[in-house]
Amino acid sequence: MDKDGDAIKSLHSSLLEKIIKKRFHSSEMVLNIIKISHVSPYADSYCDPLVVPLTFFDLKWLKDSVQQVVFYKLTESSSSREFFYSVIIPKLEASLSLVLGHFLPLAGHVTWNPQDPKPCIVVFPHDTVTLTVSESEEDFSSVSGKGKRLASETRALVTEFPASCDSPCVLSLQVTLFPNQGFCIGITANHAVMDGKTVVNFYKSWAHICKSQTHENILLPDDLTPSSDRTIINVPAYLEAKMLVLQGERTLKIPQAGEIGHDIFRITLELTLENVEKLRERAKSESTRSHSELHLSTFVLAYAYMWTCLVKTHGGQGERPVRLMYAADFRNRLDPPVHEGYLGNCVFPIGCFGHKAKTFLGEDGFVKAVEILGDSVKGLSLLGIEQLCELYVDGKKRVKPGTQLGTIAGSNRFGLYGSDFGWGKPVNTEFVSIDRNEAFSMSERDMSGGVQVGLCLKKHEMNVFISLFNDGLVN
Questions:
Q1: Which residues does residue 115 pair with via DSSP β-bridges, in sequence order?
Q2: pTM of the model
Q3: Equal fold, 27-247 vs 264-472
Q4: Which of 364, 375, 420, 446 is catalytic?
Q5: In terms of CATH architecture, what is 264-472?
Q6: The predicted structure's pLDDT at residue 440
Q7: What is the pLDDT of residues 316-330, one digit of tens each?
Q8: 12, 102, 109, 191: which is the annotated catalytic residue?
Q9: CATH tag, 27-247
Q10: Are 426 and 207 within 8 A, CB to CB?
Q11: Element (H, E) at 134
């Protein structure tokens, strides 16, 4: 088994280094690779391969990845190359080793043996996580800013899993220095192993250990300590088979994003606490339902507002089919509830099917979206995972060609803006993978309340969207 592990590790390393070098050469943003480190987990408690089964919630995301980048502005004294390579990088590497000792499955890879009915995570002794260190001469303020900018620039700040690998690794990291300005950390995570909350818990744990690192094997506080007990996932076994059938062919290859068009732009917009409250009051006044019937969470209000702006951006064709999707967290919806620090996926896609664009094109489009999304969220507590799975599978079968899809990544409750590695809190965070389709991202609005939302569109569409977004908050 050790020889197999060494062979897989070597294959992953060579494939990843090749794809990194090719991408850096062809990217819109010119990056200089300084080094590629392979960081081992700090763990002396295992000498045999660790095998972790995938669960129902993992199987839905077998061929997906989660990509995010977090930006940090440095002070004048800490942004020099000398300080970065002599202090920051060594601390990041040492703390990464320590945190991987707590999150051991993240150092492994996903495999599917011919005799096994479903894939699993395998961690061999001496497995590592790849940490790419690079530099960019671009203007940090522009790249990390929230204004309209080329989507391809942000993609250069994360790595891609090798498309030819049928036993993909779980985690890949990239740190990019903008000399005398700041740096960013790019995360590429295998979605079959971790959902957004797990990614954020890992990241916050890494930051905690890095900032407070004083000795080896540092302990994590209770709210960051991961729970690896997958037997807690109480879902009927037949649903796993249903998810595998839905995935199609027996492969674990994760498709790469491909080239991003020169006309695709990214923007990050903000809804302040005042904006959210204004949308809440608008929904109450425009809906014919009683206030008690409406579900007016920040998530519902922000998603409904973004969605109606997007549908109106595309204009006419009111008969075109549309569907809204979001990933619901089931940690508190299963019996028994799942630990908040559960290391794995505990989210499932929820779809609002059967709607047409004209529902959202009128003056009442926003309140219609609020009612549809609100009803869906309220329904999560009334339906079991078996029923929700059936509804999702049936809805997927009925999706018509040309359907406009709305999806959303992230959450306004993750608290990522509190992640301080010792050199200050983030100035911005971006979900890179939303550039693959018309998806939104959502996170908290730094530490001042409200919500931050992002999307990628063609330049002419982006201009229309921004106009609709801004006008709707003023009127």
A1: none
A2: 0.92
A3: yes
A4: 420
A5: 2-Layer Sandwich (3.30)
A6: 95
A7: 778 999 999 999 999
A8: 191
A9: 3.30.559.10
A10: no
A11: strand 129-136
